[in-house]
Amino acid sequence: MYPKLGLFIDGEWRATGAGSQGEDVINPATEKPIARLPHAASTDLDDAIEAAKRGFPAWRAMSAYDRCKIMSKAADLLRARLDLVSKILVQEQGKIFAEARAEVTMAADTISWYAEEGRRAYGRIVPGRSKAVRQFVMHEPVGIVAAFTPWNFPALTPARKIGGALAAGCSIIIKASEETPGTCVEMVRCFADAGLPPGVLNLVFGVPSAVSEHLLAQDDIKKISFTGSIAVGKHLAGLAAKTVKRSTMELGGHSPVIVFADADPEKAADTLAAFKFRNAGQVCISPTRFYVQEDSYRRFVSRFVECAKNIKLGDGLESGTTMGPLANPRRLDAMDDLVADATARGGTVVSGGRRHGNVGYFFEPTVITDLPDSAKIMTQEPFGPLAPIVTFKTFDEVVTRANSLPFGLAAYAFTSSNSTATAIGDALESGMVGINSVAISTPETPFGGVKESGHGSEGGVEGLSAYLNTKFISQG
Q1: Catalytic annotation present for 250
Q2: I need a labelling partner for 338 at 20 to 30 A (CA). Which of 29, 83, 199, 467 fits?
Q3: What pLDDT digit, counting tens, does each position of 246-261 carry?
Q4: CATH number of 7-251+453-475
Q5: 23 catalytic per annotation
Q6: Active-site residue, from 250, 364, 381, 429
Q7: What top-level class would CATH report for the domain 255-442?
Q8: pTM (predicted TM-score)
Q9: Angle between helices 97-117 and 64-80 (to 10 degrees)
Q10: Contacting residues for 47 by C-beta, under 8 A, at least 6 apart
Q11: What is the pLDDT of residues 441-463, one digit of tens each?
Protein backbone atom coordinates (compact mmCIF):
# COMPACT_ATOMS: atom_id res chain seq x y z
CA MET A 1 0.00 0.00 0.00
CA TYR A 2 3.01 2.30 0.36
CA PRO A 3 4.94 3.10 -2.84
CA LYS A 4 8.54 2.54 -3.76
CA LEU A 5 10.20 5.92 -3.43
CA GLY A 6 12.58 7.67 -5.79
CA LEU A 7 13.68 10.87 -7.43
CA PHE A 8 11.98 12.02 -10.65
CA ILE A 9 14.35 13.78 -13.03
CA ASP A 10 13.94 14.43 -16.75
CA GLY A 11 10.89 12.20 -16.99
CA GLU A 12 12.50 9.16 -15.35
CA TRP A 13 12.41 7.64 -11.87
CA ARG A 14 15.65 7.06 -10.00
CA ALA A 15 15.40 4.49 -7.24
CA THR A 16 18.67 5.75 -5.80
CA GLY A 17 20.53 9.03 -5.91
CA ALA A 18 24.04 9.43 -7.25
CA GLY A 19 25.30 9.20 -3.66
CA SER A 20 24.55 6.64 -1.00
CA GLN A 21 22.59 8.86 1.37
CA GLY A 22 18.98 8.33 2.35
CA GLU A 23 16.63 8.00 5.29
CA ASP A 24 13.75 5.92 6.61
CA VAL A 25 10.17 7.15 6.39
CA ILE A 26 8.43 6.57 9.73
CA ASN A 27 4.73 5.93 10.34
CA PRO A 28 3.95 8.31 13.24
CA ALA A 29 1.15 6.08 14.53
CA THR A 30 3.40 3.03 14.93
CA GLU A 31 6.92 4.55 15.02
CA LYS A 32 7.94 1.89 12.48
CA PRO A 33 9.77 2.53 9.18
CA ILE A 34 7.63 2.01 6.10
CA ALA A 35 10.09 2.83 3.29
CA ARG A 36 13.58 3.98 2.47
CA LEU A 37 13.91 7.37 0.76
CA PRO A 38 16.94 8.13 -1.43
CA HIS A 39 18.61 11.53 -1.22
CA ALA A 40 19.70 13.50 -4.23
CA ALA A 41 23.43 14.13 -4.53
CA SER A 42 24.69 17.40 -6.03
CA THR A 43 25.00 15.67 -9.41
CA ASP A 44 21.31 14.69 -9.23
CA LEU A 45 20.41 18.31 -8.50
CA ASP A 46 22.51 19.47 -11.43
CA ASP A 47 20.74 16.91 -13.63
CA ALA A 48 17.39 18.27 -12.46
CA ILE A 49 18.42 21.82 -13.33
CA GLU A 50 19.57 20.78 -16.79
CA ALA A 51 16.35 18.84 -17.31
CA ALA A 52 14.28 21.85 -16.26
CA LYS A 53 16.29 24.03 -18.66
CA ARG A 54 15.47 21.67 -21.52
CA GLY A 55 11.84 21.25 -20.51
CA PHE A 56 11.06 24.94 -20.09
CA PRO A 57 11.20 26.15 -23.73
CA ALA A 58 8.91 23.40 -25.01
CA TRP A 59 6.41 23.81 -22.17
CA ARG A 60 6.44 27.58 -22.53
CA ALA A 61 5.83 27.31 -26.27
CA MET A 62 2.87 24.96 -25.80
CA SER A 63 -0.46 26.75 -25.93
CA ALA A 64 -2.26 27.38 -22.66
CA TYR A 65 -5.08 25.26 -24.07
CA ASP A 66 -2.82 22.23 -24.51
CA ARG A 67 -1.13 22.75 -21.13
CA CYS A 68 -4.60 22.82 -19.60
CA LYS A 69 -5.46 19.44 -21.13
CA ILE A 70 -2.38 17.75 -19.64
CA MET A 71 -2.86 19.32 -16.22
CA SER A 72 -6.56 18.45 -16.20
CA LYS A 73 -5.76 14.85 -17.03
CA ALA A 74 -3.26 14.74 -14.15
CA ALA A 75 -5.94 16.08 -11.79
CA ASP A 76 -8.40 13.45 -13.03
CA LEU A 77 -5.82 10.70 -12.46
CA LEU A 78 -5.28 11.96 -8.93
CA ARG A 79 -9.04 11.76 -8.31
CA ALA A 80 -9.13 8.25 -9.76
CA ARG A 81 -6.39 7.22 -7.33
CA LEU A 82 -7.96 9.08 -4.41
CA ASP A 83 -8.18 6.23 -1.91
CA LEU A 84 -4.72 4.89 -2.74
CA VAL A 85 -3.02 8.26 -2.33
CA SER A 86 -5.05 9.05 0.79
CA LYS A 87 -3.93 5.82 2.48
CA ILE A 88 -0.32 6.62 1.61
CA LEU A 89 -0.76 10.09 3.14
CA VAL A 90 -2.20 8.69 6.37
CA GLN A 91 0.68 6.23 6.79
CA GLU A 92 3.41 8.83 6.45
CA GLN A 93 1.76 11.92 7.97
CA GLY A 94 -0.72 10.57 10.52
CA LYS A 95 -3.93 12.50 9.85
CA ILE A 96 -7.17 10.54 9.74
CA PHE A 97 -8.35 8.98 6.48
CA ALA A 98 -11.31 11.35 6.02
CA GLU A 99 -9.00 14.38 6.31
CA ALA A 100 -6.50 12.79 3.94
CA ARG A 101 -9.24 12.21 1.32
CA ALA A 102 -10.38 15.81 1.69
CA GLU A 103 -6.82 17.05 1.22
CA VAL A 104 -6.12 14.94 -1.87
CA THR A 105 -9.45 16.04 -3.35
CA MET A 106 -8.53 19.68 -2.72
CA ALA A 107 -5.13 19.08 -4.32
CA ALA A 108 -6.82 17.76 -7.46
CA ASP A 109 -9.22 20.71 -7.45
CA THR A 110 -6.27 23.08 -7.13
CA ILE A 111 -4.53 21.56 -10.15
CA SER A 112 -7.78 21.74 -12.14
CA TRP A 113 -8.35 25.36 -11.18
CA TYR A 114 -4.84 26.41 -12.16
CA ALA A 115 -5.15 24.48 -15.43
CA GLU A 116 -8.18 26.54 -16.39
CA GLU A 117 -6.86 29.82 -14.99
CA GLY A 118 -3.70 29.44 -17.07
CA ARG A 119 -5.92 29.96 -20.13
CA ARG A 120 -6.91 33.35 -18.71
CA ALA A 121 -3.50 34.89 -18.11
CA TYR A 122 -4.62 37.88 -20.11
CA GLY A 123 -2.59 40.92 -21.07
CA ARG A 124 -4.12 44.26 -22.00
CA ILE A 125 -3.85 47.19 -24.41
CA VAL A 126 -3.19 50.58 -22.83
CA PRO A 127 -4.31 53.56 -24.95
CA GLY A 128 -1.28 55.55 -26.09
CA ARG A 129 -0.87 59.29 -25.98
CA SER A 130 -0.34 59.27 -29.72
CA LYS A 131 -2.39 57.46 -32.35
CA ALA A 132 0.88 56.28 -33.83
CA VAL A 133 1.80 54.32 -30.70
CA ARG A 134 0.28 51.06 -29.51
CA GLN A 135 0.98 49.92 -25.96
CA PHE A 136 0.76 46.28 -24.83
CA VAL A 137 1.07 44.63 -21.44
CA MET A 138 2.00 40.92 -21.66
CA HIS A 139 2.57 38.18 -19.12
CA GLU A 140 5.33 35.62 -19.60
CA PRO A 141 6.49 32.66 -17.46
CA VAL A 142 9.24 33.61 -15.05
CA GLY A 143 11.36 30.54 -15.88
CA ILE A 144 12.60 27.64 -13.79
CA VAL A 145 11.09 27.44 -10.32
CA ALA A 146 12.48 25.81 -7.17
CA ALA A 147 9.78 24.88 -4.66
CA PHE A 148 10.02 23.57 -1.11
CA THR A 149 7.10 22.03 0.78
CA PRO A 150 6.55 20.84 4.40
CA TRP A 151 5.18 17.65 5.93
CA ASN A 152 1.81 18.75 7.29
CA PHE A 153 -0.06 18.92 3.95
CA PRO A 154 1.94 16.68 1.60
CA ALA A 155 -0.69 16.76 -1.17
CA LEU A 156 -2.17 20.26 -1.10
CA THR A 157 1.01 22.29 -0.66
CA PRO A 158 2.88 20.69 -3.58
CA ALA A 159 -0.29 20.96 -5.71
CA ARG A 160 -0.39 24.72 -5.18
CA LYS A 161 3.20 25.17 -6.28
CA ILE A 162 3.18 22.66 -9.14
CA GLY A 163 -0.20 23.93 -10.36
CA GLY A 164 0.80 27.60 -10.34
CA ALA A 165 4.16 27.02 -12.02
CA LEU A 166 2.88 24.71 -14.76
CA ALA A 167 -0.18 26.84 -15.52
CA ALA A 168 2.09 29.84 -16.06
CA GLY A 169 4.32 27.89 -18.45
CA CYS A 170 7.26 27.42 -16.05
CA SER A 171 9.26 24.28 -15.39
CA ILE A 172 9.77 23.32 -11.75
CA ILE A 173 12.05 21.42 -9.40
CA ILE A 174 10.18 20.56 -6.22
CA LYS A 175 11.75 19.33 -3.01
CA ALA A 176 8.95 17.79 -1.02
CA SER A 177 9.27 16.86 2.64
CA GLU A 178 11.48 13.88 3.42
CA GLU A 179 9.11 12.91 6.23
CA THR A 180 6.11 12.59 3.89
CA PRO A 181 7.48 11.81 0.41
CA GLY A 182 5.06 9.16 -0.86
CA THR A 183 2.13 11.50 -1.45
CA CYS A 184 4.12 13.82 -3.70
CA VAL A 185 5.67 10.84 -5.49
CA GLU A 186 2.19 9.67 -6.42
CA MET A 187 1.12 13.18 -7.49
CA VAL A 188 4.15 13.49 -9.75
CA ARG A 189 3.33 10.04 -11.15
CA CYS A 190 -0.09 11.39 -12.15
CA PHE A 191 1.54 14.18 -14.16
CA ALA A 192 3.95 11.75 -15.81
CA ASP A 193 1.09 9.41 -16.72
CA ALA A 194 -0.88 12.38 -18.08
CA GLY A 195 1.84 13.02 -20.67
CA LEU A 196 3.77 15.91 -19.15
CA PRO A 197 6.93 16.41 -21.24
CA PRO A 198 10.24 15.32 -19.63
CA GLY A 199 12.04 17.95 -17.56
CA VAL A 200 8.99 20.13 -16.91
CA LEU A 201 8.43 18.66 -13.45
CA ASN A 202 11.29 17.25 -11.37
CA LEU A 203 11.08 15.86 -7.82
CA VAL A 204 14.06 15.62 -5.47
CA PHE A 205 14.69 14.83 -1.81
CA GLY A 206 17.70 15.32 0.43
CA VAL A 207 19.14 17.21 3.36
CA PRO A 208 17.00 20.37 3.19
CA SER A 209 19.80 22.90 3.71
CA ALA A 210 22.06 21.21 1.17
CA VAL A 211 19.34 21.04 -1.49
CA SER A 212 18.14 24.61 -1.01
CA GLU A 213 21.62 26.12 -0.93
CA HIS A 214 22.63 24.23 -4.08
CA LEU A 215 19.51 25.18 -6.04
CA LEU A 216 19.29 28.78 -4.93
CA ALA A 217 22.91 29.46 -5.87
CA GLN A 218 22.12 28.73 -9.53
CA ASP A 219 21.37 31.63 -11.85
CA ASP A 220 19.11 29.37 -13.90
CA ILE A 221 16.59 29.25 -11.04
CA LYS A 222 14.43 32.36 -11.44
CA LYS A 223 11.89 31.95 -8.65
CA ILE A 224 11.47 30.13 -5.36
CA SER A 225 8.30 29.20 -3.51
CA PHE A 226 8.61 28.08 0.09
CA THR A 227 6.14 26.95 2.74
CA GLY A 228 7.55 26.38 6.21
CA SER A 229 8.93 28.04 9.30
CA ILE A 230 9.74 31.71 9.63
CA ALA A 231 13.38 31.02 10.49
CA VAL A 232 13.99 28.89 7.39
CA GLY A 233 11.97 31.30 5.25
CA LYS A 234 14.19 34.20 6.27
CA HIS A 235 17.27 32.15 5.44
CA LEU A 236 15.99 31.18 2.01
CA ALA A 237 14.88 34.74 1.29
CA GLY A 238 18.43 35.85 1.99
CA LEU A 239 19.83 33.24 -0.38
CA ALA A 240 17.32 34.23 -3.06
CA ALA A 241 18.25 37.89 -2.70
CA LYS A 242 21.86 37.17 -3.70
CA THR A 243 20.74 36.42 -7.26
CA VAL A 244 17.57 38.57 -7.12
CA LYS A 245 15.17 35.66 -7.47
CA ARG A 246 11.46 36.26 -7.11
CA SER A 247 10.00 34.55 -4.08
CA THR A 248 6.74 33.50 -2.49
CA MET A 249 6.99 32.86 1.23
CA GLU A 250 4.16 31.19 3.15
CA LEU A 251 5.54 31.11 6.67
CA GLY A 252 4.27 30.41 10.16
CA GLY A 253 1.47 32.14 12.01
CA HIS A 254 -0.28 32.23 15.37
CA SER A 255 -3.91 32.76 14.49
CA PRO A 256 -6.03 34.79 16.92
CA VAL A 257 -9.72 33.93 17.34
CA ILE A 258 -12.06 36.55 18.74
CA VAL A 259 -15.47 35.44 19.99
CA PHE A 260 -17.65 38.44 20.79
CA ALA A 261 -20.41 38.26 23.40
CA ASP A 262 -23.12 38.64 20.74
CA ALA A 263 -22.04 35.43 18.98
CA ASP A 264 -23.58 32.05 19.79
CA PRO A 265 -20.81 30.60 22.04
CA GLU A 266 -21.80 26.94 21.61
CA LYS A 267 -22.01 27.20 17.83
CA ALA A 268 -18.68 29.02 17.69
CA ALA A 269 -17.08 26.40 19.97
CA ASP A 270 -18.34 23.54 17.79
CA THR A 271 -16.92 25.13 14.65
CA LEU A 272 -13.62 26.12 16.19
CA ALA A 273 -12.95 22.87 18.06
CA ALA A 274 -13.41 20.86 14.85
CA PHE A 275 -11.04 23.19 13.03
CA LYS A 276 -8.54 23.43 15.89
CA PHE A 277 -8.00 19.68 16.23
CA ARG A 278 -7.93 18.97 12.48
CA ASN A 279 -4.64 17.22 11.69
CA ALA A 280 -3.90 17.33 15.44
CA GLY A 281 -3.55 21.11 15.20
CA GLN A 282 -0.66 20.84 12.72
CA VAL A 283 -2.13 23.42 10.36
CA CYS A 284 -0.56 26.81 9.66
CA ILE A 285 -3.98 28.51 9.71
CA SER A 286 -5.21 26.59 12.75
CA PRO A 287 -6.85 28.82 15.40
CA THR A 288 -4.23 29.06 18.12
CA ARG A 289 -5.09 31.99 20.44
CA PHE A 290 -8.68 32.13 21.67
CA TYR A 291 -10.01 35.44 23.01
CA VAL A 292 -13.58 35.18 24.30
CA GLN A 293 -15.54 38.16 25.61
CA GLU A 294 -16.27 37.81 29.32
CA ASP A 295 -20.05 37.33 29.11
CA SER A 296 -19.68 34.26 26.87
CA TYR A 297 -16.47 32.82 28.29
CA ARG A 298 -17.83 30.07 30.57
CA ARG A 299 -20.31 28.76 28.00
CA PHE A 300 -17.68 28.74 25.25
CA VAL A 301 -15.07 26.94 27.37
CA SER A 302 -17.57 24.36 28.59
CA ARG A 303 -18.65 23.44 25.05
CA PHE A 304 -15.10 23.50 23.70
CA VAL A 305 -13.87 21.14 26.43
CA GLU A 306 -16.80 18.82 25.72
CA CYS A 307 -15.75 18.69 22.05
CA ALA A 308 -12.13 18.01 22.99
CA LYS A 309 -13.04 15.16 25.33
CA ASN A 310 -15.14 13.48 22.63
CA ILE A 311 -12.16 13.14 20.28
CA LYS A 312 -10.91 9.59 19.77
CA LEU A 313 -7.16 9.23 19.27
CA GLY A 314 -5.73 6.46 17.12
CA ASP A 315 -4.26 5.33 13.81
CA GLY A 316 -5.79 7.38 11.02
CA LEU A 317 -6.70 4.26 9.07
CA GLU A 318 -8.70 2.73 11.94
CA SER A 319 -12.47 3.15 11.96
CA GLY A 320 -13.77 5.63 14.51
CA THR A 321 -10.52 7.56 14.90
CA THR A 322 -11.12 11.32 14.91
CA MET A 323 -7.55 12.56 15.55
CA GLY A 324 -4.26 10.94 14.64
CA PRO A 325 -0.75 11.35 16.02
CA LEU A 326 1.61 14.25 15.75
CA ALA A 327 4.02 13.93 12.84
CA ASN A 328 7.24 13.35 14.77
CA PRO A 329 8.72 13.22 18.29
CA ARG A 330 9.88 16.84 17.99
CA ARG A 331 6.24 17.94 18.18
CA LEU A 332 5.68 15.88 21.34
CA ASP A 333 8.60 17.61 23.04
CA ALA A 334 7.25 20.99 21.95
CA MET A 335 3.80 20.21 23.42
CA ASP A 336 5.33 19.16 26.75
CA ASP A 337 7.34 22.38 26.88
CA LEU A 338 4.35 24.62 26.13
CA VAL A 339 2.11 22.91 28.69
CA ALA A 340 4.81 23.07 31.38
CA ASP A 341 5.36 26.77 30.73
CA ALA A 342 1.63 27.45 30.80
CA THR A 343 1.12 25.77 34.17
CA ALA A 344 4.22 27.47 35.59
CA ARG A 345 2.65 30.82 34.68
CA GLY A 346 -0.63 30.04 36.42
CA GLY A 347 -2.52 28.41 33.55
CA THR A 348 -5.12 25.74 34.24
CA VAL A 349 -5.14 22.58 32.12
CA VAL A 350 -8.88 21.94 31.86
CA SER A 351 -8.59 18.98 29.51
CA GLY A 352 -5.74 16.84 28.17
CA GLY A 353 -2.20 18.06 28.59
CA ARG A 354 -0.35 14.76 28.30
CA ARG A 355 1.07 12.28 25.84
CA HIS A 356 -1.24 9.41 25.00
CA GLY A 357 -0.28 5.73 24.94
CA ASN A 358 3.09 4.04 24.67
CA VAL A 359 3.33 3.69 20.88
CA GLY A 360 3.03 6.48 18.34
CA TYR A 361 3.41 10.24 18.66
CA PHE A 362 0.01 10.88 20.26
CA PHE A 363 -0.86 13.90 22.40
CA GLU A 364 -4.21 14.54 24.04
CA PRO A 365 -6.45 17.37 22.78
CA THR A 366 -5.68 20.05 25.33
CA VAL A 367 -7.55 23.10 26.64
CA ILE A 368 -5.76 25.62 28.87
CA THR A 369 -7.35 28.62 30.60
CA ASP A 370 -6.31 31.47 32.96
CA LEU A 371 -3.17 32.29 30.99
CA PRO A 372 -1.24 35.53 30.84
CA ASP A 373 -0.48 36.90 27.36
CA SER A 374 3.22 36.39 28.13
CA ALA A 375 2.94 32.59 28.22
CA LYS A 376 4.85 30.79 25.48
CA ILE A 377 1.71 29.32 24.01
CA MET A 378 0.30 32.83 23.57
CA THR A 379 3.41 34.09 21.78
CA GLN A 380 4.74 31.03 19.91
CA GLU A 381 2.89 28.98 17.30
CA PRO A 382 2.06 25.64 19.02
CA PHE A 383 1.50 23.60 15.84
CA GLY A 384 -0.26 20.95 17.86
CA PRO A 385 -3.53 20.13 19.67
CA LEU A 386 -3.29 22.88 22.31
CA ALA A 387 -6.02 25.50 22.71
CA PRO A 388 -5.35 28.40 25.10
CA ILE A 389 -8.58 30.27 25.90
CA VAL A 390 -8.58 33.66 27.67
CA THR A 391 -11.03 36.52 28.22
CA PHE A 392 -11.25 40.08 26.93
CA LYS A 393 -13.40 43.09 27.79
CA THR A 394 -13.48 45.60 24.90
CA PHE A 395 -13.08 45.72 21.12
CA ASP A 396 -10.02 47.99 21.20
CA GLU A 397 -8.34 45.86 23.86
CA VAL A 398 -8.70 42.58 21.96
CA VAL A 399 -7.58 44.13 18.67
CA THR A 400 -4.39 45.34 20.35
CA ARG A 401 -3.74 41.89 21.80
CA ALA A 402 -4.57 40.06 18.57
CA ASN A 403 -2.24 42.29 16.55
CA SER A 404 0.57 42.30 19.11
CA LEU A 405 2.66 39.51 17.57
CA PRO A 406 4.90 39.69 14.48
CA PHE A 407 2.69 37.16 12.66
CA GLY A 408 -0.15 37.79 10.26
CA LEU A 409 -1.22 34.66 8.39
CA ALA A 410 -4.81 33.98 9.50
CA ALA A 411 -7.28 35.37 12.00
CA TYR A 412 -10.90 34.62 12.90
CA ALA A 413 -13.81 36.41 14.55
CA PHE A 414 -17.33 35.44 15.52
CA THR A 415 -20.11 37.99 15.97
CA SER A 416 -23.78 38.50 15.09
CA SER A 417 -23.29 42.22 14.44
CA ASN A 418 -22.67 43.39 10.88
CA SER A 419 -20.96 46.55 12.10
CA THR A 420 -18.64 44.57 14.40
CA ALA A 421 -17.88 42.12 11.59
CA THR A 422 -16.86 44.99 9.29
CA ALA A 423 -14.82 46.71 11.99
CA ILE A 424 -12.91 43.60 13.07
CA GLY A 425 -12.23 42.58 9.47
CA ASP A 426 -10.65 45.99 8.89
CA ALA A 427 -8.74 46.01 12.19
CA LEU A 428 -7.04 42.60 12.12
CA GLU A 429 -3.51 42.60 10.67
CA SER A 430 -3.64 39.36 8.75
CA GLY A 431 -3.42 38.11 5.19
CA MET A 432 -6.61 36.07 5.64
CA VAL A 433 -9.55 36.73 7.94
CA GLY A 434 -12.53 34.44 8.54
CA ILE A 435 -15.61 36.04 10.08
CA ASN A 436 -18.19 33.54 11.31
CA SER A 437 -16.39 31.06 9.10
CA VAL A 438 -13.12 29.13 8.97
CA ALA A 439 -13.30 28.54 5.20
CA ILE A 440 -10.37 30.72 4.15
CA SER A 441 -8.51 28.28 1.89
CA THR A 442 -9.88 27.43 -1.57
CA PRO A 443 -8.17 27.08 -4.97
CA GLU A 444 -9.80 30.25 -6.30
CA THR A 445 -8.87 32.56 -3.41
CA PRO A 446 -5.48 33.99 -2.38
CA PHE A 447 -3.64 32.21 0.42
CA GLY A 448 -0.82 34.09 2.12
CA GLY A 449 0.23 36.24 5.04
CA VAL A 450 1.69 39.58 6.06
CA LYS A 451 4.35 40.70 8.52
CA GLU A 452 6.70 37.81 9.37
CA SER A 453 4.18 35.30 8.06
CA GLY A 454 5.56 35.91 4.60
CA HIS A 455 4.75 37.61 1.33
CA GLY A 456 2.98 36.72 -1.88
CA SER A 457 -0.01 34.44 -2.30
CA GLU A 458 -0.87 31.01 -3.56
CA GLY A 459 -4.27 30.30 -5.05
CA GLY A 460 -6.49 32.76 -6.87
CA VAL A 461 -5.30 34.95 -9.71
CA GLU A 462 -2.57 36.15 -7.34
CA GLY A 463 -1.14 32.64 -7.18
CA LEU A 464 -0.84 32.45 -10.96
CA SER A 465 0.64 35.93 -11.35
CA ALA A 466 3.38 34.95 -8.88
CA TYR A 467 4.87 32.80 -11.67
CA LEU A 468 4.54 35.41 -14.42
CA ASN A 469 6.73 38.32 -15.47
CA THR A 470 5.06 41.47 -16.71
CA LYS A 471 6.33 42.87 -19.99
CA PHE A 472 5.32 46.24 -21.43
CA ILE A 473 5.72 46.87 -25.16
CA SER A 474 5.38 50.30 -26.73
CA GLN A 475 5.15 49.98 -30.51
CA GLY A 476 5.40 53.01 -32.75
Answers
A1: yes
A2: 29
A3: 999 999 999 999 999 9
A4: 3.40.605.10
A5: no
A6: 250
A7: alpha beta
A8: 0.97
A9: 170
A10: 9, 10
A11: 999 999 999 999 999 999 999 99
